[in-house]
Design a protein that fits this description.
Layout: E1 2-4, H1 17-25, E2 28-31, H2 34-47, E3 58-61, H3 67-72, E4 83-86, H4 99-107, E5 112-114, H5 120-128, E6 135-140, H6 145-156, E7 161-166, H7 168-182, E8 187-191, E9 199-203, H8 205-212, E10 220-224, H9 228-232, H10 237-241, H11 247-258, H12 262-273
Parallel strand pairs: 1-4, 1-5, 2-3, 2-4, 6-7
Antiparallel strand pairs: 7-10, 8-9, 8-10
Helix pairs in contact: 7-8, 11-12
């Protein structure tokens, strides 16, 4: 059998009793990082005297770089013992491995279970206070170039409250991009969720940049409020692009329904044409 077990995103107290029990009964632990999982088990043993893991538990590294190769070599008999997958922090399958393992179990008739638990995206979504409860998880943007610009534009104009993950060394870049593209859009930032230095920030990108004043350290979740203009419009970008009018006029019309920056919208249309 396979069990996917979420681990705390910061506060060890968020570990459920059920998760502790499943970890203790595991014969094999598939780990995003075996060192972090072993440290977690050590902390649990110190904190909870009732936690007594099986002897001779096997620890196997399973991360985004080797997941596909690992699963290609699997045999269904591997799951005849208790197998548990844990990511470093949060819910397996959310920007971490896990889904391919579940799919393998479904295709091979193997029993599996998913334990609920802490994850950063839902915590930040609720903490944002944005009342548009239709939510879209976008994950990480591409690092740079045209792909990043197009991905961010799509996230801004999804019509949903949209959640992004971003690394600390690219957060300033993202905020500056948001200043250029949609500085009137209200956004929410959550830093170091459930940890000692947890911090919430809500406002425009420019106001948050000013408040941070160059301090971008930590793990961040970014929540973009929904674009009301696009939600209420019956006219789509596709409709506008079908009109036989100059690109600049198309860009101006598209900006009316998306809230996009006119200059960047015009450049995006030129890029699409080329």
């Amino acid at each position: 059998m396979l069990s996917l077990v979420p681990t705390p995103i910061g506060n060890i107290g968020d570990m459920s009793l059920r998760a502790i029990e499943v970890l203790g009964e595991a014969d094999t632990l598939l780990c995003e990082d075996t060192r972090i999982t072993k440290k977690l088990l050590h902390i649990l043993k110190e904190r909870y005297p009732f936690f007594t893991p099986k002897e001779n538990q096997e620890f196997i590294s399973l991360h985004s770089h080797n997941e596909k190769h690992f699963i290609e070599k699997l045999e269904p008999s591997f799951f005849e013992s208790n197998v548990v997958y844990v990511s470093d922090a949060g819910m397996p399958g959310i920007s971490d491995p896990g889904q391919m393992l579940v799919n393998y179990c479904i295709e091979n008739g193997i029993s599996y279970d998913i334990l609920p638990g802490a994850n950063a995206l839902l915590t930040a979504f609720v903490a944002s206070g944005f009342v548009e409860t239709r939510m879209l998880f976008w994950g990480f943007l591409p690092h740079k170039g045209k792909d990043r610009a197009e991905s961010l534009n799509s996230a801004l104009n999804s019509g949903f409250t949209t959640i992004l993950y971003e690394s600390p060394h690219r957060l300033e870049k993202l905020l500056n991009e948001l200043v250029d593209e949609a500085d009137d859009r209200e956004i929410f930032l959550a830093k170091e969720l459930t940890k000692r230095y947890q911090k919430y920030l809500r406002g425009t990108a420019s106001s948050i940049l000013k408040e941070l004043d160059g301090n971008f350290k930590g793990e961040w979740v970014v929540v973009l409020s929904a674009s009301e203009a696009q939600n209420s419009s019956a006219i789509t970008q596709k409709d506008i692009l079908s009109l036989d009018i100059p690109k600049k006029q198309q860009a101006k019309l598209i900006c009316k329904i998306t809230g996009e920056n006119p200059k960047s919208c015009y450049q995006r249309l030129l890029d699409i044409e080329n």
